[in-house]
């Protein structure tokens, strides 16, 4: 297809608009003979005849895998060389739990790969390790994350030097398996509402950990049922006072609580552990529930980076309020969100690779007396999988950008950067995990009955999206009060000005392929949608706040706010994809990525074409051109789908099964391990 021509007619992509109209008129006077091929068949012939893009798979893979490729390959090679550490199909829950523990210990002590050392110093390498581990066994990936990112990360990020000196080596070599006990039966996302109490006893210089009621039981805690020896327990810090209240609630803090004897693994006095039992997936992770009955721990077990208690019971903190201390504490745990978004992309790579390879190999029907064709040659299969493949590439670059920003945050400790990463991680974690969960089902269905085989690898984000929307509204308010915008939202300044100004009717009618494939048009369209949603929801909130109050107004506009957060996240993803295409050094890989990026952008614009049509951002003829070009790009991506999934460079053992995905296990992963 000549990119300088319009894409109005799928059967004749080379003719101009004027020629098309003349030809249509002539067809009314001289109809096509019955024997002439249909326009749909002409399109297929034309697309097949188009030159297939040549892709250098080695260069593409090198660009995609990045600088941490070596350590990922080392991990894969280690587990492939150890049949005793490979997870068999149909393994029982108890066997799977013990196998996961052996796998983790072997990784650290035999393969000499110690992820904990990279948590702070090189987060990008840590996340690369988790991606490779997740491809071995999702349960192992979760267990590793609980041990090093959650339990170990809480000690590093919320504790001080005395805690690192005491616990680092034990966490690093897995002598101290631990848990992250935040979620309670009645409280998950609302961490400030946790009910577990840690009351200071000045007589014995100890904290007393108590579960006051059944709703405060720590629930679904990874590593708790079998292997955990310690738990980072999040509880309200209660101090005795001499006033009429007698106690003072200093807000939620984190405490190190031993739960099992280090040698015998027997449960310690006052600790009650309940095994959550068999799950629909992730049975290699020993989830459990914890209850505390007057469990005493030394005062030094308070992770005191943001607040401390002296021997005489006085509280000190560099942060003046409970809310500021709480925000600082959760800010240090944002790595969990980053890891969830990053790992989800890894799971989606496996799923899409299996589905695409199956669809390329599986043949079904075809023209009379001709060989059967690949099911990926059917438009319906292409429309299921090719936009998903394009989205996967987009997510890959967006989450790598998130890891880069997170790494900068850990080094610089800049307050604005912390806020930026907090909102960006919330948006990407929510968006990518939700998309992945839905896509796993689509991949399974795209593989027919094979998608349900047990041997295969197919395996609530609302609060996070509200955080993104809240941050956007704050940026919106700052913009009109003369404040500065944080890095991720800089585009809003120009985009809001565009939205508030008159639309250009000429640009709304441009329909050439060059224009539609122009990154500026694509990104402007994404950002225009975000700015439009932001302005409209801000107006609605102002209106409803007068009668419903701030909470009532927020609840009334909640679906609108979630759309805003989603639109913003998509804008960030596209911006990072465009940047990655531009930075790719290899010409053939860059051309392939550009094709995929265009499909990602135009597919999203077409899927929300009503929004753009309602405000005449896109004229009817342009909307039709977007649709036709999206279909064309879908077929072109299909032509290089094999090379694109090869670009992920996944080991053969990861995708050896014919198909299927543990989507139930993935749902467990995203909903029970995240923040």
TrEMBL record:
Membrane-spanning residues: none
GO BP terms in the entry: fatty acid beta-oxidation using acyl-CoA oxidase; lipid homeostasis
Annotated ranges, domain Acyl-CoA oxidase C-terminal: 518-661
Tagged with keyword Transcription: no
Chain ranges of the Acyl-CoA oxidase/dehydrogenase middle domain: 179-295
Residues forming coiled coils: none
Chain sites annotated for binding FAD: 183, 222
Pfam families found in the cross-reference section: ACOX, ACOX_C_alpha1, Acyl-CoA_dh_M
Domain Acyl-CoA oxidase C-alpha1: 331-460
Subcellular location: Peroxisome
Any one GO cellular component localisation term in the record: peroxisome
Origin superkingdom: Eukaryota
Cofactor: FAD
Main location: other
Keyword line: FAD, Fatty acid metabolism, Flavoprotein, Lipid metabolism, Oxidoreductase, Peroxisome, Transit peptide
Similarity remark: Belongs to the acyl-CoA oxidase family.
Name this polypeptide is given: Acyl-coenzyme A oxidase
Organism of origin: Gossypium darwinii
Biological classification of the source: Eukaryota, Viridiplantae, Streptophyta, Embryophyta, Tracheophyta
């Amino acid at each position: 297809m000549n990119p300088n021509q319009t894409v109005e007619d799928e059967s004749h992509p080379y003719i101009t608009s004027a020629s098309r109209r003349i030809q249509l008129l002539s067809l009314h006077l001289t109809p096509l003979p019955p024997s002439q091929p249909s326009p749909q068949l002409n399109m297929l012939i034309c697309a097949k005849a188009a030159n297939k893009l040549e892709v250098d798979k080695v260069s593409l893979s090198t660009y995609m895998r990045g600088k941490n490729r070596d350590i990922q390959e080392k991990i894969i090679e280690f587990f492939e060389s150890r049949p005793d550490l490979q997870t068999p199909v149909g393994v029982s829950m108890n066997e799977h739990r013990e196998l996961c523990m052996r796998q983790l210990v072997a990784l650290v002590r035999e393969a000499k790969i110690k992820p904990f050392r990279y948590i702070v110093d090189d987060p990008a390498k840590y996340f690369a390790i988790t991606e490779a581990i997740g491809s071995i066994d999702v349960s192992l990936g979760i267990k590793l994350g609980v041990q090093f990112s959650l339990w170990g990360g809480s000690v590093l990020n919320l504790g001080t030097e005395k805690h690192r000196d005491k616990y680092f080596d034990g966490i690093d070599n897995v002598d101290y398996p631990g848990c992250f006990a935040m979620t309670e039966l009645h409280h998950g996302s609302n961490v400030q509402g946790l009910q577990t109490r840690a009351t200071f006893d000045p007589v014995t210089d100890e904290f007393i950990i108590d579960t006051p009621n059944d709703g405060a039981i720590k629930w679904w805690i990874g590593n708790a049922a079998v292997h955990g020896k310690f738990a980072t327990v999040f509880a309200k810090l209660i101090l005795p006072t001499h006033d009429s209240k007698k106690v003072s609630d200093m807000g939620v803090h984190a405490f190190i609580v031993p739960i099992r004897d280090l040698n015998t693994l027997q449960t310690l006095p006052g600790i009650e552990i309940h095994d959550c039992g068999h799950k629909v997936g992730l049975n290699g992770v020993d989830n459990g529930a914890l209850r505390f009955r007057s469990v005493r721990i030394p005062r030094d077990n308070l992770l005191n980076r943001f607040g401390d208690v002296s021997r005489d019971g006085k509280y000190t903190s560099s942060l003046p309020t409970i809310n500021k201390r709480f925000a600082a504490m959760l800010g240090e745990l944002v790595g969990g969100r980053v890891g969830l978004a990053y790992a989800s992309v890894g799971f989606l790579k496996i799923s899409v690779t299996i589905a695409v390879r199956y669809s390329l190999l599986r043949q079904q029907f075809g023209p009379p007396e001709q060989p059967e064709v690949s099911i990926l040659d059917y438009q319906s299969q292409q429309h299921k999988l090719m936009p998903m493949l394009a989205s996967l590439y987009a997510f890959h670059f967006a989450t790598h950008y998130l890891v880069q920003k997170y790494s900068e945050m850990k080094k610089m400790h800049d307050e604005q950067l912390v806020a930026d990463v907090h909102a960006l991680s919330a948006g990407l974690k929510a968006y990518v995990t939700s998309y992945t969960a839905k896509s796993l089902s689509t991949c399974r269905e795209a593989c027919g009955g094979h998608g349900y085989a047990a041997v295969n690898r197919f395996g609530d984000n609302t609060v996070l999206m509200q955080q993104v929307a809240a941050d956007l509204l704050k940026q919106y308010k700052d913009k009109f009060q003369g404040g500065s915008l944080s890095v991720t939202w800089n585009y809003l300044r120009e985009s809001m000005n565009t939205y508030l100004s008159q639309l250009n009717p000429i640009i709304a009618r441009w329909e050439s392929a060059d224009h539609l494939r122009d990154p500026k048009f694509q990104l402007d369209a994404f950002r225009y949608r975000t700015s439009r949603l932001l302005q409209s929801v801000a107006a609605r909130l102002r209106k409803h706040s007068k009668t419903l109050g701030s909470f009532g107004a927020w609840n009334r506009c909640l679906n609108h706010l979630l759309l805003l957060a989603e639109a913003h996240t998509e804008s960030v993803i596209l911006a990072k994809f465009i940047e990655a295409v531009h930075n790719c050094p290899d010409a053939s890989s860059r051309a392939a990525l550009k094709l995929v990026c265009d499909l990602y952008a135009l597919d999203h614009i077409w899927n929300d074409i009503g929004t753009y049509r309602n405000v005449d951002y896109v004229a009817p003829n342009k909307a039709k051109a977007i649709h036709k070009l999206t279909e064309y790009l879908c077929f072109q991506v299909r032509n290089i789908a094999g090379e694109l999934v090869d670009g992920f460079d996944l080991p053969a053992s990861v995708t050896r099964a014919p198909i299927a995905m543990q989507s139930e296990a993935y749902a467990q992963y995203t909903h029970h391990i995240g923040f």
